Amino acid sequence: MERLNKKTSLVKHHMFANKIIILLLIFVVIQSCEKDFLEQTNPNALTTGDFWNNNTDLNFGLNATYSVIKDKDIIAIRDEAVRTDIATHQRWRAKSLSDAMYDQNFDGTTKYVQNKWNALFLGVFRANQVIENYERLKSGYSNEDAEEEGLRIVAQARALRGYFYYMLSTSYNGGSVPLLTSIPKTFAEFQQAFSTAEAVKEFYRADLTFSLENLPETYTAWEKEDGNNLGRITGGACEALLGKSYIVDNNFAEAEVYLKNVIDNYNYELVDDLAKNFTGIAEFNSESIFELNFTTSVNLDAVGEEILAQDVTHLIYGAGIQPSSWITLKYREEKPDANDPANMNIGANVYDDQGEVVGTIDRLRRYSLRMANSMGSVDDIDSPMYGVPQGTFGDGDGIAYARNRLNVFKKFTHWNTIGAGAGEDKSTDFNNKSDINIPVIRLADIYLLYAECMLEKGDLSEALRYINRVRKRSHLYLLGKSSDPGAEFLNAETTYIDDINLDINGGEVVTITNLMEHLRFTERPLELALEGERSTHLRRWGVFKQQLMKLASIKYDYWTVPPNFNGKHAKPRYKCFLTRAGETPEHFTLPENQRTREKIGAQDAIIGSGKFSESLHAYLPIPQNEIDANLNWDVIKD
To answer: Residue 348: which domain range?
Structure first.
């Protein structure tokens, strides 16, 4: 074992010595107790003798493990998005209000850093309880049904443990974390040295491989076994995670095998409408590989610690996070295919300067359907928000963010299921609670990862095939040539453009080099905003700081929309969308006194881009509470 060189202050030495003295005193007191008292069983505590006796008990333990996976700090939609190029926090323009993750000012004491670690290791502990007790029980099964049920239970527990360790490996300390393979029972067993990143990956890949071989392949297969199994982890999810684990290492040859198996052998398909993945209208659909199941249909106060509803919907609805200025412009610049009928707005309203409808017109939609399903903007006149035009939404209901915030995310909200401009249900029973499921892995992500493998392999045609499948779903122009061997959409409703900027008169033909850049900084962020482990990818590409610096280098103008623009609304929309500094939106011109430029406020990531250090911020650090509790936190196992 090798002890890492760490500087430890004199104060910490004194604290450590005091802890040892206290432990010794406790030991002396315990030794002085009567032996018969020490041998008594606590009547209020569950033991292996009165629990963990059968598969029913194992299932209870498994359900407790599943409940951990829904902890909001594990996927951490808010904190992971703001530390990258995807999002900003609510008050980002007020420079006096800092945010540790957005400003790259986090350390081992930051709440998110500690909470995520605690949640993941709680999951590991609970999975280990199931696994360890299964191993004790399995020799006593009396029939094949019990054996099969037990195998299904332990395969799920190992899959979940594999996922928890995948997240620990990709999130913390360069992938080096304590490897808990059993339930700690003594003080010494709690003082776990850290394992190497390679050992951690080898361990969780073994878990995922075992589960891949012993679980139903898909949600449909689970349902055929038992109609109440939606939400259980599947063999397909395990195979996808294995592929992603090699992507993290930039081991594209190994990743390719697993990703192609997921594509070819599980009957997954992209859904026809991106919104079906995020608004509760088609959950556990054909695109879903692994998703977290939430509900508000039960008494949430009567279920103990189990997480049944999520609070992401209300976080987004209240503009607790907002699209970064950079990604906002990326969405606004996407071009809907003019030949695709899905992009035609038939009978679109025409408004006068009082917001009254004065006629209708058939025209091409202003912004792409991918933007419409991902981000709201008051000047998007083709996509409703809670049943009303986006320019009108919030006018009479006191929804301040709809009038004075920049563009807002629409993913994980009920924007297309709640009408009449009502917005999210903020009544006592449902405030900060939502039933929308959250996808962990979906097929579009696998397609884009596989396309990256093809680019690394030098196969431009095959990479374009999978990128264009994702683009076609949102009715965008497709990249490359219709004569390419990988072209699949050969009809009059689809337009291929062999220009990386999708300029029909452009001269920069699609190549492996520029398509890789496009994949990293257009397809992945726009398709997978708020869901795609963005920090992991920026880190493995070696462009984390470079991308933050790019964000900080761009200046923006804010635009205030006057009353009765895009519908009847008496109040202006204050600083409600942006353009690059000096640019005017193509679709309308406002007088100079109605546009505002803030030379300092209209830049993203100014503090974070300067503070970001690869060694400090590419991974999350070891939490301070782990350092305080673990005497071997600075020891690496051979």
So the answer is: 314-436+555-602
Question: What confidence tens digit (pLDDT) does each residue in 128-177 have?
Answer: 999 999 999 999 999 999 999 999 999 999 999 999 999 999 999 999 99
Residue 302: Cβ within 10 Å count? 7
The predicted pLDDT at position 8 comes to 39
At residue 26, does pLDDT exceed 60? no
DSSP secondary-structure letter at 625? H
Q: Looking at residue 584, what is its pLDDT?
A: 80
Give the single-character DSSP code of 557.
E
Q: Which tokens belong to 526?
A: 């726009």
pLDDT exceeds cutoff 90 at 343:
yes
Q: How confident is the model at residue 593 (pLDDT cuts 50, 70, 90)?
A: low
C-alpha–C-alpha distance, residues 342 and 361, integer Å = 16
Cα dihedral 304, 305, 308, 311, rounded to 10, equals 120
The full 3-state SS of 47-106, as one line of letters, equals CCCCCCCCHHHHHHHHHHHHHHHCCHHHHCHHHHHHCCCCEEECCCCCCCCCCCCCCCCC
Residue 343 identity (one-letter amino acid): N
* 419 within domain boundaries: yes
Please state the rounded mean pLDDT for residues 449-478: 99
Token pair 């590419």 in the structure block, residue: 618
Q: Are 609 and 99 in contact (CB under 8 A)?
A: no
Categorise residue 387: left if φ over 0, alpha if ψ from -120 to 50, beta otherwise.
Answer: left
Is 86 within the bounds of a domain? no
Give the C-alpha separation, 154 to 262, whole Å: 23
- Nearest CA-CA partner of 548 in 473, 631, 605: 605
Winning range, highest mean pLDDT, from 249-263, 287-301, 571-585: 249-263
One-letter amino acid at 627 equals I
Give domain status of residue 579, yes or no. yes
Q: How many structural domains is the chain composed of?
A: 1
Any domain includes 103: no
Structure tokens at 496: 């291929």
Measured over the CA atoms of residue 354, residue 356, residue 357 and residue 358, the dihedral's sign is: negative
Q: pTM of the predicted model, to two decimals? A: 0.91
* pLDDT (tens digit per residue) in 517-535: 999 999 999 999 999 799 9
Determine the 3-state secondary structure of 178 from DSSP.
strand
In Å, how far from its chain's centre is CA 185?
Answer: 34
Picking from 568, 278, 572, the residue whose alpha carbon sits closest to that of residue 402 is: 572
3-state secondary structure of 135: helix
Q: At what angle do helices 235-248 and 144-171 cross, to 10 degrees?
A: 20
Q: Where are the alpha helices (DSSP H) in 554-619?
A: 606-611, 614-617
